[in-house]
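thread from #wetlab-drylab

HS: before we spend reagent money on co-crystallization trials with 6-phosphogluconic acid, can we at least see a predicted complex? here's what I'd submit
DV: go for it
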Amino acid sequence: MTNQTATTTDAKCDIGFIGLGVMGANLTLNLADHGYSVACFDLDTEKTQAILEKDQAESGDQPARLIGCDSFADLLSNIAAPHIIMLSVPAGAPVDAVCAQLIEAGLPRDSIVIDTGNSLWTDSVEREARLSKDLVFFSTAVSGGEVGARFGPSLMPAGNADAWARIEPVMNAIAAKVDPTSGLPLESFEPGKPVTEGEPCVTYIGPAGSGHYVKMVHNGIEYADMQLICEAYHAMRSTLAMTPAEIAAVFSEWNKGKLNSYLMEISAEVLAQTDATTDVPLVDMILDRAGQKGTGLWTAVGALELGSPAQTIASAVFARSLSALKDERRVASQQLSGPVAAPVSEEEKAVAISQLEQALYCSKICAYAQGFQLMATASNTHNWNLNFAEIAKIWRAGCIIRAVFLQSITDAFEKDSQLSNLLLDPFFNEQIAEYQSDWRQAIAKATIAGVPCPAMMSALSYYDSYRTDVLPANLLQGQRDYFGAHTYQRVDKPAEEAYHTQWSTPGRPEVKV
Ligand code: 6PG
């Protein structure tokens, strides 16, 4: 590979980067914007060539900031010791393969290898332990998509604390920034002119695995957030007969208020697009079959494993699964009956839109409450000592779920670091008290019209279940004891005492077990 700089092996790069796909290439250019020289390598030499050309185009008359390498050994010889190497390769086996090849190429033991992919958190734990004799394996989960990677993502680093001390300045530099006073993002989307002031959206999350766990939950919340917006769209489309352009206008309005978020903004933009070939709204030309790479599923599975209720996140994952059954749904749509939405007056439409705004907001609060509750349970289980105010802070900019709302979550955890559920924070408690009637109305109207809103419904059920003192789990315990002698506790006896009733025996004697 041709080096673009005049300097070669005698002027070593600050950092090595492996994996020059969309995320990797943009993170590399982001590093270069912040003054770091980077030696880059990808198994696909065209990708290496492409980033060198992009760098050349962006740096103009200035010396190129990147060096292209054609092997693992070449990469190692072009990085200053002690080596810092970042990876952006697909999660799973490719991460292990790259580590193995680096070791084979003579990677010094004090090298820090940073995995920036969407790895499964347990893999990060296992890798740190297994690779510790050969290198320092460190994880830094990245959120923000391709634009975030290029101009400032939210970063969730975790692992060896000494390694963190070495790489912290790099991560602080490339992360998104927020204005410390307003909590709002400070953004620049101009190559070579990065934001250098403000609070970086990065915080050391904790021991190995914790960063990718937090990123996984971020993605679970992302799934819920996206699905909730889609349900509001669907309700407007199917119960209020609104066009995508009209809904785009409503979303843009909502984006000026408490629902302001990146996902709201891009949803409005998607809905406003017209298809160039057919001249119909582009959204109508997009097949309604959702894809998924797995992080939402991991969150739902993780929540089930820990017994932490996260039904809105799980609903969002299932909504994608159900959407994928496109052929079956097409057949079912011809065979299964349902109500037909009744026409609405302009006045009713305005009321319904406003109710949907509140429904989206309240549901969103519940989705975040579930995500933070899950992280708290995981933190206790694995002794991670997660700092939720800091986590909410680093999600205020750069990441996909960035939203004004994250400042209120930050405030909630700053006031009470031990807050067991976001719903119990006085601000969120009041917000739901104020808007819940609209929330219920919006769901009721969609249900009566036969328009699905699974994530909104699950959020409301979560809220109602969480605030209910006596749930029908007493009957459930009776059922379990009836058929399986699984025992139950009594409300009038100490919790550690177990009781069993001989349900089918005349007189039904109860015994203390
Ligand atoms: C982010 C995104 C990113 C990716 C998702 C997409 O935070 O930058 O979450 O990680 O876009 O993994 O996931 P799905 O393909 O599963 O929707």
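DV: The first strand starts at residue 15 and ends at 18.
HS: ok that's useful, forwarding to the group
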